[in-house]
Amino acid sequence: MNKVIAKKKYGQNFLKDEVVLQKIIEAMPHNNNKIVEIGPGLGDLTKYLVDVKSVEAFEVDTDLCKLLQKKFEKEIATEQLHINCGDVLEAWKSELIEESYDLVANLPYYIATNIILKALADPKCKNILVMVQLEVAEKFCANENDKVFGSLSVITQSAGSSRIVVRVPPTAFEPQPKIDSAIFLIEKSSDRNDEIFEGMLRVAFKQPRKTLMKNLSEIYEKNNLQDAFLKLNLAQTIRPHQVSTADYHQLHNIIQRNFNVRRDSTDE
Ligand code: SAM
């Protein structure tokens, strides 16, 4: 095979470390779901995936698509693998696939957060096992009181449970990225679908170092907030990362029932 030159614009860092590839396979949830792989690249992960499950792959790079079609001729013929050549975000404008699936992928980092949020919202997606940059994995897997606990952590905890499987150094890839990576797993128990709740989270974490009260009082009456904090036993000085996901949901319920959004500090 001719040497493939990695295309930066597609976030191509190919995972070459067999131990790490094996760790992904070992961490896969045991079920009968199909696998969706986004960005199969040279097929190094795909070759393990097709051994255990049937795979629907999405690859944007037409050169790699051709290479994959050749490499996996047999698996394509037996329908163990289907390759969709094109941008996965375009394909996702409608239903990605009809069956229940687990997303297993070494994601293109430039769109990784977007892809994970889409998978969290997709009722067909049951589990998410992905490699991303370490900093992003830590946000999706953080717990309250962790410094990086933020809206992504609350959204994830609202949809299921998450954990970091393993950290991965740049040396595992070709070409090597400048940053550390991590594989993490989200086992979903429900789907992300509450835009109003997420709107509140955006305001809550807008200035993470300020108090939650200060952030939320940008759009809600302070008196109402003070009452709600009292009801939930939250200190008025509490910071956004110190509040649990359960308390964010309780706060949201109180706000939905009792509050009017203040208009004077919005962009009117
Ligand atoms: N899975 C391979 C591996 O582990 O070596 C490659 C991973 S590489 C980090 C990301 C892959 O995603 C590349 O093959 C790239 O071409 C592909 N990709 C980038 N943007 C994409 C998009 N919008 N839709 C589908 N695939 C994309």
Helix-strand layout with pairing:
Layout: E1 14-15, H1 18-27, E2 34-38, H2 46-52, E3 55-59, H3 62-71, H4 73-77, E4 81-85, H5 88-91, E5 101-106, H6 112-121, E6 125-133, H7 134-141, H8 151-159, E7 160-168, E8 173-174, E9 181-188, H9 195-204, H10 212-216, H11 222-231, H12 245-258
Parallel strand pairs: 2-3, 2-5, 3-4, 5-6
Antiparallel strand pairs: 1-8, 6-9, 7-9
Descriptors for this entry?
268 residues, alpha/beta, Rossmann fold, Helicase, Ruva Protein, domain 3, two-stranded antiparallel sheet, 12 helices, binds S-adenosylmethionine
Could you characterize what this model shows?
The chain has 268 residues and is an alpha/beta fold. It folds into 2 domains: 8-188, 3-Layer(aba) Sandwich (Rossmann fold); 195-267, Helicase, Ruva Protein, domain 3, CATH 1.10.8.100. It contains 12 helices and 9 strands. The protein starts with 13 loop residues before the first strand and ends in a 10-residue tail after the last helix. The mean pLDDT is 95. It binds S-adenosylmethionine. S-adenosylmethionine binds at residues 10-15, 38-42, 44-45, 58-61, 64, 87-89, 106, 108, 111.
